[in-house]
User: Fold this.
Amino acid sequence: MLSIYRTMYLSRKIDDKEIQLKGQNKIFFQISGAGHEAVLVAAGTVLKPGYDWFYPYYRDRALCLQLGMTPLEQLLSAVGAEKDPNSHGRQMPSHWGHKKLNIVSQSSPTGTQLLQAVGCAEAGYRVKLIKELKNRVQDFHADEVAYVSLGDGTSSEGECWEALNSACNLKLPVLFLLEDNGYAISVPVEVQTPGGDVSKLLENFPNLHIERCDGTDLLESYAAIQRAVQHCREGKGPALVHAKVIRPYSHSLSDDERLYRPDEERTADSERDPVKRFGGFLIEEGITSQDDLQRIKDGVDLVYPSNALDANGLLRTAIRCDDPVLFLEHKHLYRQTYNKSQYPPDDFMIPFGKAKIVREGTHMSIIAYGALVQRSVVAAKQAEQQGISVEVIDLRSLSPYDWNAIVASVKKTNKVLVAHEDSLSFGYGAEIAARIAGELFEYLDAPVHRVAALDTFVAYAPQLEDVILPQAADVAKAIQELYSY
Ligand SMILES: Cc1ncc(C[n+]2csc(CCOP(=O)(O)OP(=O)(O)O)c2C)c(N)n1
Ligand SMILES: [Mg+2]
Assistant:
């Protein structure tokens, strides 16, 4: 589910990046897939790259990503680079093509792809019929499907009706995905389609399986596509999925929809934004948290181990995951004997975003990371002699960070101290302290305290370094203050 969200979000972000590049005159044309992402990722999940055949149209960025085209390949297409696998700079951007994934380069006249897809499916049909052909074709699969997509406007073209005609007549395994965003540039669907409903006109086409769905709803789209693909794979004939989508941006960057679309309509559309909707669904259902979604959006993970074992487990996670990770190692901690541990087994890994309770306590919580973990433990042990029970939490990951662990600890102890070597002003702890104050105010018996470096660069002389960076004694002092507040 999260990887589906990620692809939808990525698709939108690549569109946004290209729009920015167009503004900078680094690319010369942009047409987006915004608003169409949900049904396209659903199609890319159900169909098989390099097995089925794909005749997409320019809105199908999210489909291509889901099938395995990389963001780099898409951006190479945007700049018309020779290395672009879509067309090596021959076609306009968003004219998708990829040999390995079986995505066939499309023509610029809208609708032509429909005939090409039917031709592809008919080739498979002929191979099944004619024995001699079987030995002459490679990589043919008896249940393969030819996917083709089109917009509502394109459905008015002769090619569309010719394609449906042959596909139904020969019962070809063609999946027609009609991405109905209500407009063909500035022409509303009800102006050019009799009755304004394309699939209604097709109801009596023999052998044609019809599905209708809200194409901005991931799960509904997925179910519709799955039933449609099954119909095709079982050799029962073509299927048409009529997906109602939105077009939150103008037709292309050569168009300004504010000149012909009322504001109310555009606002109503934005309520159905598929990326927002699916993100909201994942949170509502408890499948993910706001923090994890944010993490997908931020892209870079940031980890900061405080000891050798954590460094090992986090480094393995960093190497084995696909995400970019900033791995911060504290040089001073390298040779500290308290950091030693056994070398862990091969499968030992530490997940990102999971804090460690280094020491349990009841009177206050210290949220720390890096060098301040050990110094906090030393201070906590001293405090224990005076009957003060201090919980010490090692965040280990700074992005994402383990908010749940912080919440649980603050609710238990009601007093909190944030400790780190970063500078006090604008440091990492400022964010944590602000969030605790903002979201856990009712659980606090004292203001959030902070122990951090002085607001200056760290000096060379060891005596100065000790003064500038927080030591165990500074933590001990803050514990006393917080305890007696
Ligand atoms: C045969 C042909 N006629 C006109 C155009 C110019 N044109 C490009 S996209 C488009 C509108 C297509 O609308 P629709 O099929 O609804 O797809 P959407 O862009 O809304 O997803 C038009 C008229 C074209 N590319 N090819
Ligand atoms: Mg349209």
